[in-house]
Structures are given as C-alpha cells and as structure tokens.
Amino acid sequence: MEKILCVDDDPNLLLLYQEELSEEGYHLIIARNSRQALEKFEAESPQLVILDMHMPNMEGLKTLKALLERNKSLPIILNTAYPVDLKNILSWGIVSYVIKSSDLTELKAKIKEAIALIKKDK
Predict the structure, then answer these.
(1) What DSSP state is assigned to residue 47?
(2) How, if at all, do strands 3-7 and 27-31 pair?
(3) Do residues 51 and 7 lie in contact, with contact meaning Cβ atoms separated by under 8 Å?
(4) Does the N-terminal or the C-terminal CB of the chain have fewer CB atoms within 10 Å?
(5) DSSP assignment of 52-94, as one string?
(6) Helix (H/G/I), strand (E/B), else coil: 104
(7) How far apart, in whole angstroms, are the C-alpha atoms of residue 41 and residue 67?
(8) Which domains, and CATH codes, for the chain?
(9) pLDDT tens string 67-100
C-alpha cells in the first residue's frame, strides 16, 4: 500500500481526500501545515506528496523547498485552487499540478501516473 502525504490547511478537503483515496487503496497521511508535513514526512517516509501551495504564511512554497531538500527525487503533486507560475517550480522535479476540485478524478489519475513512475524506477 503506497503512503501518500497530503498537506492542506482545509480540514474538509483533507476529509474528502482521506475518504476517497483510502477507497483507492492508498494509506493517506494528513498534515495541516508545514511543521506537521515535515514531521510526518520524517516519521512515515511517504512515496508521494500532495501539497497545497496556498496556505497561510506562504507555507506551501516553504514546505515544497524543505521536502525537496530532504529528498530531491520525491514525487510531489501540487494541488492548488489558484494558478501557479510553474516555469521555475516544475524544474524542481515536481510530477504535476492539479487545480483543486471536489471531483477527484484528475487528482486520482495524477496519483496513479506518479505511482507508476515510482514503480518503474525501482
């Protein structure tokens, strides 16, 4: 079972992700801020991260940088409700980004793609 760290400051969205992605067979690890994300990343060693970019105090960008400092090959799916300037960020090794929605079809597809890449590289 793949472990996915999901970082978002919206508790309702995290609940939706927990329910939907658990049904897909993933073990979801929840973090509501940068501090929790880094603690849980160290403790749980997830294979993939879903990261909200727009959290209070620019935490999304700070969290992204901190995670990549710990593991440069970590697949990260940026999950945001706002357009992101991806020119520089995508060069950091991010797998992809998804616009937030209550319909998780696109997010689930991106997760499957990322997991397939991880398995292929092993």
Answers:
(1) S
(2) parallel
(3) yes
(4) C
(5) ES--GGGHHHHHHHHHHHH-TT--EEEEESS---HHHHHTTT-
(6) coil
(7) 8
(8) 3-121 (3.40.50.2300)
(9) 988 988 889 998 887 766 665 666 666 668 888 8
How many other C-beta atoms lie within 10 A of the C-beta of residue 97? 18
Q: Which of 31, 49, 27, 24 is nearest to 105 (CA)?
A: 24
The pTM assigned to this predicted structure is 0.89
Task: Tell me which amino acid residue 107 is.
Answer: L
- The one-letter amino acid at 78: L
* Residue 83 exposed, middle or buried by CB count within 10 Å (0-12, 13-18, 19+): exposed
How far is the C-alpha of 4 from the C-alpha of 6, rounded, in Å? 6
